[in-house]
Amino acid sequence: MNRRDLLKLGGLTLSQAATSGSPLFGLQNLPVPAAAPPDGKPDYTLRISPVQVELDRSHILSTIGYNGSAPGPVLRMREGKPVTIEVINDTDTPELVHWHGMLIPSAVDGTEEEGSPLVPPHGRYRFQLTPGPAGSRWYHSHAMAMDDLHKGSFTGQFGFVYVEGASNLGQYDQELFLSLRDWEPFFTSTMEDDDDDTHNEPVLEKPTNPNTDPNGLEVGSMTYSINDKALGFGEPIRVRQGQRLLLHFLNASAIENRRVALAGHKMTVIALDGNPVPTPRAVDSLFLGAGERADVTVEMTNPGIWILGSTEKMVREAGLGVIMEYAGQHRQPQWIDPPRRPWDYTIFGRDTSSSPAPEQTVEMIFEKIPGGSGKFNTWLINGKPYPHDREFVLQKGTRYRLVMRNRTDDAHPMHLHRHLWELVEINGRKTAGIIKDTVVVPYYGRATVDFTADQPGLSLFHCHLQQHMDYGFKALFRYA
What we know:
Layout: H1 3-6, E1 15-16, E2 44-56, E3 59-66, E4 75-78, E5 83-89, E6 97-100, E7 124-129, E8 135-141, E9 158-164, E10 174-183, E11 186-188, E12 218-220, E13 223-226, E14 237-239, E15 244-251, E16 258-262, E17 267-272, E18 275-283, E19 286-288, E20 293-299, E21 305-310, H2 313-317, E22 321-326, E23 360-373, E24 376-381, E25 392-394, E26 399-406, E27 412-416, E28 421-426, E29 429-436, E30 438-441, E31 446-452, E32 459-463, H3 466-470, E33 474-479
Parallel strand pairs: 2-5, 4-9, 10-15, 14-22, 23-26, 25-33
Antiparallel strand pairs: 1-10, 2-3, 5-7, 6-8, 8-9, 10-13, 11-12, 15-20, 16-19, 16-21, 17-18, 17-20, 21-22, 23-24, 26-31, 27-30, 27-32, 28-29, 28-31, 32-33
């Protein structure tokens, strides 16, 4: 059964720029947590507690969020200026807050596998971090969920962090933070994924004899929003002709890659995962893997009332959208399907001639065992699920090439903590200068990234789909 056959029409408040933040498997020599900051008022407080999200007038859901809402507040920080953060956990289970895209020590990264302390139930934890690099980052729960769809990133525990740097993203009239989200997840064996957007790519890594055993249960959803409102509810984005908008997009899903567009307009991509791209380009739509971000500018030159939302009709009508309303316009919101062009990271890159050569290459093969974990699939890296005991050991200062070979029928958004990598090849197309922390490795495809080992400590590498990570799709990088 196809997802679009199951979805039904649903009904956004916008988070404007707001100012105010598994068991271990035989790990030894864990980093010592930083000393607690002195007493006094923290710069940011995040309170983890039950919240209600009113997607529309007839659909109110209960989840876990930050500071009484989901998404949590937009946190603005200054690059290089240390901040004190206090996390208060009002729930009955241990929690972790991960600072996605930050170059910070593993002790405060918010990942149990790296040795970050858990925030105990009905307890609190105060720590310091130095924000960086500049750009669009985000924070979210990194607790394992396994078969509990009310834990981890299946909940409403997510929010933007914007790290201000010396440079800026140009002049604009409005700045908006837009998180793409699915809600009320459920287990299913009947849905097909229409969201990976990579089935027309070359299948460079497809096995000659792929495993055809029945898949285990995956996670699906039929409820969507941008921020905390479904399409048609909450306030529209109000604009005037001639304005320039700066939109920060985040795919905060735990289960889906997603494509979005603004009907009647092009969006110029100026940064990916918070990092400026070498070649800004205007596109008809954006493709974002789970965990990815994109900063775009939009010139408001086409008066009307338009829909910004998912390019999948039933996903959009089930809530993943928001109305963009020009002043003085009175008509029904319009949607126009954008041209169906494959997403290509490399158009934002530069010539490869000046890229430094890697000193070492690490090969990683991704595989799936259908139903390998009882009801669920098991995910393998180089033939094994997590843990990978001292398999990936880095030498400080060495530049590595990581070749990710996806021998599964899913597109995987792969994330390496506490490091930034440079995309150098995607399914045979070479590029340079695109700096990211999360890259979607295509269906039966290949992606290659380079990075310098300059962040000593433990660093988690994983698929950013929660269920895949929980059932084996992760590994620890450690330094010699």
